[in-house]
Amino acid sequence: MTMTGTTTPTPPTTATTTATTTATIGASPTSSTSPRPVHLAVYDTYADWETGHTTAHLTQRGHRVRTVGPAAGAPVTTMGGVRIQPDMALADLAPGDSSLLILTGASLWDSGDELAPFAAKAREFLAAGVPVAAICGATAGLAREGLLDAYAHTSAAAAYLAHQPGYAGAGRYVEADAVTDGDLITAGPTEPVAFAREVFARLDVYGPEVLDAWYRLFHDSDASAFPVLMAAAERGDA
Question: For the whole model, what pTM was predicted?
Answer without folding.
Answer: 0.86
